[in-house]
Design brief:
Layout: E1 2-4, H1 11-20, H2 29-38, E2 44-48, E3 51-59, E4 67-75, H3 84-95, E5 103-108, H4 113-125, E6 129-136, E7 149-155
Parallel strand pairs: 4-5
Antiparallel strand pairs: 1-2, 2-3, 3-4, 5-7, 6-7
Helix pairs in contact: 1-2, 3-4
The structure holds coenzyme A.
Coenzyme A binds near residues 23, 82, 83, 86 and 113.
Amino acid sequence: MNFRKPRVEDGAKLRELVANSQEMDDNSCYLYLLLCQDFADTCVVAESNETIVGFVTGYTPPQRPTSLFVWQVVVAPEARRQGLAKRMLDVLIQQFPGEKLEFVEATITPDNVPSRSLFNALARSLHTEINYTPYFRADHFGNFAHDPEELCRVGPIGPKREKA
Ligand SMILES: CC(C)(COP(=O)(O)OP(=O)(O)OC[C@H]1O[C@@H](n2cnc3c(N)ncnc32)[C@H](O)[C@@H]1OP(=O)(O)O)[C@@H](O)C(=O)NCCC(=O)NCCS
């Protein structure tokens, strides 16, 4: 398995992985192109035999420069339950472009067991805490029916993190 930052040429493939994964909201291809173009330092793709089988997209929230906000984590169905998502998060933590990384954040719907298990596993491996707080309520989504999203924060992350 090869891990690397995404390139613009990958954008459409990322969208395809999402479209093929029934569980996720669909987004425009343009959004993935922007992420690959401008946010590659906080994103990672996993490639097997030159095929992208998983990715994580994220960014640093402007008001929380020591946080890595993970937006989407996606693994192709045939590559799941083999530790790939966890390894991609580890790579992202190593390649964090800021001076100091204190928290890994994500929003998660209450019923997303795989996602909760993933971030629990991350907290465990970093020997730190995990906390959930209400974030986007269902009514924030207006007429676009959506479960509420809780903010999941893993941290504080100790100084042991070394630059890749
Ligand atoms: C969530 C997802 C990325 C996990 O990918 P993965 O590569 O299978 O996860 P890993 O193998 O790295 O597993 C990480 C941890 O989560 C657990 N886990 C993974 N899938 C699970 C499932 N379906 N049910 C319960 N636990 C699960 C693993 O057991 C592991 O925990 P452990 O270390 O305590 O054993 C994958 O299921 C996926 O792409 N789902 C669809 C997209 C999605 O919902 N993304 C999250 C929201 S953006």
